[in-house]
Amino acid sequence: MLIGVPKESKNSDDRVSLIPVHALKLTRIGAEVQVETNSGKNAGFSDEAYIESGAKIIANREELLKTSDILLRLGKPPNDEIGKLKENSIHISFLDPFNETGLVSEFKQNKITAISMEMIPRTTRAQKMDALSSQANLAGYVMVLLAAEKLPRILPMMMTPAGTLKPANVFVIGVGVAGLQAIATAKRLGAKVTAFDTRTVTAEQVKSLGAKFLEIDLGETGQTKDGYAVELTPAQLDKQKQAQKDQIAKSDIVITTAQVFGRKPPILITKDMIPEMQKGSVIVDMAAETGGNVEGSVGGKTVDFEGVTIIGDGNWSNFVARDASQMYSSNLYNLIEEFWDKEKKEFNLNLNDEILQGCVITNQGEIINERIKNL
Ligand code: NAD
Q1: Quick check: CB of 280 below 6 Å from ligand 1?
Q2: 265 C-beta closer than 6 A to ligand 1
Q3: Which domain-ending residue is among 278, 293, 314?
């Protein structure tokens, strides 16, 4: 089977979906690998490194798209590239299938088997393929560093003959994978960290990182079998906003990572709350590009709102493109290896397997994923 790696379509993306070490591993299990020229360059992986790993470098993108049996990408493909893929080939990438109905229908019409990395189930067996987690982990780290860089203060306490500086207050809203890493990173930098999540099971995790959990009684909240938050009612959301107001006002940095899988993120910080923060404070809105948790954040940009910096850049793991590529590439390798038929030397698309049932969206001209089909 021929596995293809095109250069990412978004010019701003420095990451690459497969790094040389995993190209080598794929060749060892009997696959052939072809990589578009300069695909790994911005993440620090040269064409020579791919060649040494047994991969072929291809200058002609159209040829790579047309001949690959499996195509590996990070970002979703441009709609007009789907018609250029080999019929019945497998396309693996992030897809945002809940919102990208046009894209899903292109895959269907062109008889491409589309695998969405967002839809890998959150089970113990699939953990090694979980790209949402690998990228969110790095995002948590990056968001703290970006905020620290904008903040006109230091994060740790500092006692010097010139006086004592108090530690900065950091408030993390949403304690999933990114939130936990943000807490750990801010703690390592010496900040005083407080956090909140509607899933009460996170309180222990917050405390075990040495941070404080903000107690808010919202009544019945909960989580799905996959560990995702259940959406709050409007009354619960209002209560949460009121209860967080003081904590936000006294924070130097607020990092929001609150998400409800498959829905728009809830607005948790409204415009009236922002001027209550000290001038120079920083808010990072992790999901600014898809609506975000903060009124006034702008997807893809860092903006000033009444003296408070709001960072909404997005694509956070791309700031550490080399590590992000390594982790994503490892997720992809683990996915392929899990379903690799060693004798036939091909990917076995076993649709009875719960992992593939979760993440395969289209196959043989049909939308076969139950959740996407029923949208
Ligand atoms: P996510 O990105 O969907 O959401 C981020 C966080 O926002 C979640 O913790 C959620 O509870 C929280 N949230 C939602 N609404 C909120 C609100 N109004 N206020 C505050 N917080 C709010 O979640 P994620 O980071 O992808 O992880 C979700 C869960 O999945 C976690 O329990 C995580 O441990 C679990 N997980 C399990 C596995 C596995 O078992 N293989 C792998 C990864 C993650």
Answers
A1: no
A2: no
A3: 314
C-alpha separations of 256 from 43, 204, 272, 284 in Å: 27, 19, 17, 6
Residues belonging to the active site: 122, 127, 130, 133, 228
308 lies in some domain: yes
Closest Cα to atom 34 of ligand 1:
176
Are 166 and 202 part of one and the same domain?
Answer: yes
Given the CA of residue 177, which atom of ligand 1 is nearest to it? 25
Ligand 1, atom nearest to 175 Cα: 9
Query: What residues form DSSP beta bridges with 294?
Result: 269
What length is written for the chain?
Answer: 375
Ligand 1 midpoint to CA 242 (Å): 22
**Å from CA of 270 to ligand 1 middle:** 22
Q: Domain of 17?
A: 2-119+321-365
Written as tens digits, the pLDDT of the chain (375 aa) is 999 999 998 888 999 999 999 999 999 999 999 999 999 999 999 999 999 999 999 999 999 999 999 999 999 999 999 999 999 999 999 999 998 999 999 999 999 999 999 999 999 999 999 999 999 999 999 999 999 999 999 999 999 999 999 999 999 999 999 999 999 999 999 999 999 999 999 999 999 999 999 999 999 888 887 788 999 999 999 999 999 999 999 999 999 999 988 788 999 999 999 999 999 999 999 999 989 999 999 999 999 999 999 999 999 999 999 999 999 999 999 999 999 999 999 999 999 999 999 999 999 999 999 999 988
Assigned domain for 194 exists: yes
The reply to whether ligand 1 has any atom less than 6 angstroms from the CB of 286 is no
Residue 371 maps to a domain: no
Question: pTM for this structure?
Answer: 0.94
CA pair distance 87, 363, nearest whole angstrom: 11
Kindly list the distances between the CA atom of residue 111 and the CA atoms of 129, 335, 339, 370, in Å, as whole numbers in the listed order.
Answer: 24, 21, 21, 18
Q: Is 213 in the pocket of ligand 1 (CB under 6 A)?
A: no
When divided into structural domains, the chain yields a total of 2
